[in-house]
Amino acid sequence: MAKEVVLMPMLKEDTNTMRALQGLENNSSSIRLQAALAAGTTPDPGFIGKLIERCAIEPEFYVREMLTWALTRHAASMTVPVLLGEVRSECAQARSQALHTLSKIGDRQAWPAITPALLYDADDEVARSAWRAAVVLVPEGEEHELAVVLATQLGRGERETQLSLSRALIALGEVTLPTLGAATTDLDPRVRAHAIATERLWRDPDAGFEFAIEEAKRLVALGGAGQEGQ
């Protein structure tokens, strides 16, 4: 009788685990969302592999965010090694989501995995995730070197990509300013405009990126370099 009392909670736990794992495969995004929520509410090492696997193929943004949250609820010692493998995946979404999750976990032991190849990744979503992760994971004292690397991407992509890079550079702090200043005189007008817009956002975060970039483009067209007072 005592053995049955012990077994019942175990059986119930196993059933809940199986239900959550199966729910992650469901055709309904709301059921997948609930399954990810359950996996994060009651963490279990048995969830980690499936959560990471699902991150690589999940089409819904809000479900991916819940998958990431669920992974952050598990021990970093178990999730980080698997995520480090994912950042080398041939699948762009797998790389992007792994980097995003590493940025949320914030374990600086993952820093060596943030390679130039990821920071320069041809896929904008992967690169954006790598920039955000780099800013979170960069060791103290290496911010300037990271700013120099990130500045090579100024002028890249459309508005969302450029805004992500500006935010990453600004988040690194004052060490970014000399690098930005140099970029305002770059031969490429897209690089100059992006650097000027980022400087303006640094000085006035409330200005808005759209306004800053349009003003920067106007200055570039007029031959200005975006220095204070222009």
Automatic annotation (TrEMBL):
Annotated InterPro entries: ARM-like (IPR011989), ARM-type_fold (IPR016024)
Superkingdom, taxonomy of origin: Bacteria
SUPFAM superfamilies the record matches: ARM repeat
Pfam families reported in the protein's UniProt record: HEAT_2
Protein name, entry field: HEAT repeat domain-containing protein
The organism of origin for this protein: Streptomyces sannanensis
